[in-house]
Amino acid sequence: MATRLPTRVAPEHTARIRGLSRAFGDRTVLDRLDLDIERGEFVALLGRSGSGKSTLLRALAGLDRDTTGELAVDGTVAVAFQEPRLLPWKRVIDNVALGLPPGGRERARDALREVGLTARADAWPLTLSGGEAQRASLARALVREPGLLLLDEPFSALDALTRITMHRLVLDLWDHHARDTSVLLVTHDVDEALLLADRVLVLGEGRIAHESRIEAERPRRITDLTALRDRLLGELGVEEGTR
Amino acid sequence: MSSPALDLGAARQAARTRARVPRATGLQRLISPIVLLLLWQAASSSGLLPERLIAAPVKIAGTAVDLTADGTLPNAIGVSLQRVVEGFVIGAVAAVVLALAAGLSRVGENAIDPPMQMLRALPFYGLIPLFILWFGIGETPKVALVALGVAFPLYLNTYAGIRGVDGGLIEAGRTLRLGRTALIRHVILPGALPQTLVGLRQSLGVAWLALIVAEQVNADAGLGYMINDAREFMRTDVIVVGLVVYSALGLITDAVVRLIERRALAWRRAFQPA
Description:
By secondary structure, chain A is of the alpha/beta class. Chain A has seven helices and nine strands; from the N terminus they run E-E-E-H-E-E-H-H-H-E-H-E-H-E-E-H. Chain A: Keywords: ATP-binding, Cell membrane, Membrane, Nucleotide-binding, Translocase, Transport.
């Protein structure tokens, strides 16, 4: 089991991972992986299916106790999953307030206002659209004022237009929180990573196989980043470099 | 080809006809039972259907009024209802406690579930001779039989409901830092509720059946006693009144559970698949 020692994280970092390994049977998914996430940094983690992206995220979320190595996170960790995972028997506001100390409903209401969902606060989750449900899930994560926000492909099931709106929303929220919150976005969408992240990581062979910093100002246009895009696609094993 | 305006008119006409259909069928569906009742009455009045086989509807209705007026029927219902309620409460509490213990812990599962799965195969009406030996012929064996009949469907469904809760929601709860108690209260129990209510309906159905069977044996009060006593005197009218009351009580309890379902599962009703 990975040790979780918040005190071991350097002040400029939110998360520190050293030699993290995870095997399922005799298949090694994470192999002595090292990673630091800076305070307020927006990191995108790319990788092919089965490359261990979700395994790493689950380890950071504290959902996987069968890892070995060293893993330390400073502050609260919050997760927005691919499926919104709202409790269908609790109204939206109560989903957001779940697990908060007494008086959390006011904060939950603020969080819903931030994601533009005030009008649906008293709705049942099953009546929400995909985008609304994902926004509620984001509000539920943000209301905890996390030091590290983990996003596990939260936009992949949304239609293209909703996804663009959600990208803007995530960047706005991250800005609004004075960039105190580090974000780790797990995705298989290279464009999404390029538009959002400060740093893009590619997971391969159980380790960080590649990393690129993106200094470009936001909002970005993908047409300005084609060179890096081709490079990342190459790292992911997609030969598209001749365009 | 018809014009759009005409199409609209036709559609409206069709909608109106469709709207009228349910009420019409509702009334139509009453016709055949009424005809059957009338035929039954006619057969009885003409002597075709002798009263020692079955009494005439009118006679049965009169008997129901008499039995109610002289207190026999209310009294019998009271006694039977008490048996069902006592048996149900005992069986339901035992079932829910066992299902929680088995559903929420590995140790509980290993200790409780195997014997429960084995015992469910037991035809429990066959236990009556043993129950008479153990508990005599008083109220206890009747209440015990109802409790046993209630316990199994409720246990099985509650346990399956707990185990069937979406693992993704439990994970989400853990990332929200919910402790074990909060996880059980906010995620696991509400998640198991729909299946538990299915079990509740089944077990209430079984409760009335178990009562009917139990009351055939050495009852000295209650609906079963009333029916058995009537058989001795070939009072088929009283027997039918007893049967009608049994079904009415079964229907009422079912309606109560439906009401509970509608209120407790409002979140699910809100979801209307297109």
